[in-house]
Structure formats: C-alpha cells, structure tokens
Amino acid sequence: MRNLDKLQEPAVLEEYSAQWLQDYVENPGSSNKKYKYRHPDIKKQLKDETGFKCVYCESKIGHNTPGDIEHKVPSSRDIELHFFWENLTIACTAVRGIFESCKIIP
Ligand SMILES: [Zn+2]
C-alpha cells in the first residue's frame, strides 16, 4: 500500500460520522446504513488523495474501475473505524476477483 498524505476530512463525514456509526451499530444488517461512506464528497476526496489511482496496485480509477472505498483496518476488526476518515482509502476492488491480488497487503 502506498503511503499518502491524508487530505482534509470531507465536511459531510466530519459532521455525520458519529451519527452514521451509531445508526450502523444499531442496525448492522442495513446496507443503507453500512455504506454511508460512499457519499460522493467522500469518494471524490479519496480519489484526489490517491491521484485517482488504486492505493494497492496504482491502477487508474476511472470508468473501467469506478473504485471501491476501502477500510485500512477492516470493520470486522474494529467497527469504530468504519466511518473514521483516517481509516478510509480507495482501491480498484470494484472488480473483485480480477484485482483480488490488490488486497494482499505486504
Ligand atoms: Zn488495485
């Protein structure tokens, strides 16, 4: 994984992350609540941060691979980090399988 300087936390995340986390913890089965981090402002900031490249393999994130938001520490390991800005990045894992090798972190 590349080392990148974090850009500023998007305002929407700063404002709602605590509420989103509470909603998600109370309704862990709700994909609507789970994927709040897919907000366009958050995704845009993460793309800017990585230079529109997969954080693992540096493939260009564009129309072929829209990019998936990744948790550096998986939410299964620490749910508190599910909406934590420092824990979010972006990878080409939208096409899981093909890019599964991207997921192997040294
Ligand atoms: Zn990749």
How far is the first residue's CA from the last residue's CA? 8 Å
Unreliable stretches, pLDDT < 50, 5 or more residues? none
Q: Sheet with the most strands?
A: 2 strands, antiparallel
Percent helix, as a range, is 25-40%
What does this structure look like?
The chain has three helices and two strands; from the N terminus they run H-H-H-E-E. It is 29% helix and 8% strand. The chain has helices spanning 11-26, 31-34, 40-50; strands spanning 68-71, 88-91. The protein has one domain (11-103). A two-stranded antiparallel sheet has the order 1-2. With 106 residues, the protein is of the alpha+beta class. The structure holds zinc ion. Residues 54, 56-57, 59, 91-92, 99, 102 line the site of zinc ion (ZN).
Could you outline the blueprint of secondary structure elements for this entry?
Elements (H helix, E strand, L loop, with lengths): L10 H16 L4 H4 L5 H11 L17 E4 L16 E4 L15
Antiparallel strand pairs: 1-2
The structure holds zinc ion.
Summary of the model, kept short:
The protein has one domain (11-103). The protein is 29% helix and 8% strand.
Q: What tags apply to this protein structure?
A:
about 110 residues, two-stranded antiparallel sheet, globular, binds zinc ion
